[in-house]
Amino acid sequence: MEEALIRYSDVEIHQQELCVLKGVNLELHKGEFVYLIGKVGSGKTSLLKTFYGELDVTDGEAEILGYNVRSLKRKHIPQLRRKLGIVFQDFQLLTDRTVYSNLEFVLRATGWKNRQEIKDRIDEVLQLVGMSNKGYKLPNELSGGEQQRIVIARAVLNSPDIVLADELLVTWTWKPESRLLNCCVGFVPQALL
C-alpha cells in the first residue's frame, strides 16, 4: 500500500485552553475522497486548519505530504500550502478584483509568469467549474454558489496533491452538485477531503 498523504495518530487539538478534538486517527491515501460529518462546533473546521498550519496539533503524531505537522516551522508553511488546494468556508475572495484577477493573483503568487499560460490555465479551471463566462465579474456580483465555484477553481489552479474543502456542499443545489464533485475528484490527482 502507498504511503499515506495524511496520517494522524492519537492527535489532540486545542484552541487556547479548550480541547476541541482528542484521539483523532486518520489516514488519507492517493485517490481517496473523504468527507467529515458532525454537528456545528464539533471540530471539523479545526481539524482542517491543522492540515494547512493554521492551528497547531498539541499531542499525537501528525504528518501531511511528508511534513511533520507538530514540528513544522512557520517559514515552511507556505511550502506545504502550495501542495494543497483549500476551499475556505468563508470563500476569502479578494472583493476589489474580478474573478479573473483573483485567479491570476494566485498563479502569480505561486511563480507563474507567462501571460498566455496564466490565461489558458484560468480559462481551463473556469470552464471546469462551469463559470467560463464570469471572469469579468466582481465577487459581490456573484451568488453564493457561484462564488463557491470560483473558490473551487482557485483551489485546483496549481494541481494540488490534496484539496481541503470546508462545507463544500452548503451552497450547492442538487443538480450541479454531482457535476462539481466529479470535476473536483477528476481534477485533483491525489485526494479530496
Can you put this structure into words, describing what you see?
- With 193 residues, the protein is α/β, with parallel strands linked by helices.
- The protein folds into two domains: 6-81, P-loop containing nucleotide triphosphate hydrolases (Rossmann fold, 3-Layer(aba) Sandwich); 87-192, 3-Layer(aba) Sandwich (Rossmann fold), CATH 3.40.50.
- The chain contains six helices and seven strands; from the N terminus they run E-E-H-E-E-H-E-H-H-H-E-H-E.
- A four-stranded antiparallel sheet has the order 2-1-3-4, covered by helices on one side.
- Helix 4 (115-128) packs across helix 5.
- It is globular, with a radius of gyration of 17 Å.
- The two termini are 19 Å apart.
- Residues 188-193 have low confidence and may be disordered.
- Pfam families: ABC_tran.
- This is Cell division transporter.
- Keywords: ATP-binding, Cell cycle, Cell division, Nucleotide-binding.
- It comes from Bacteroides reticulotermitis JCM 10512.
- Residues 6-192 form the ABC transporter domain.
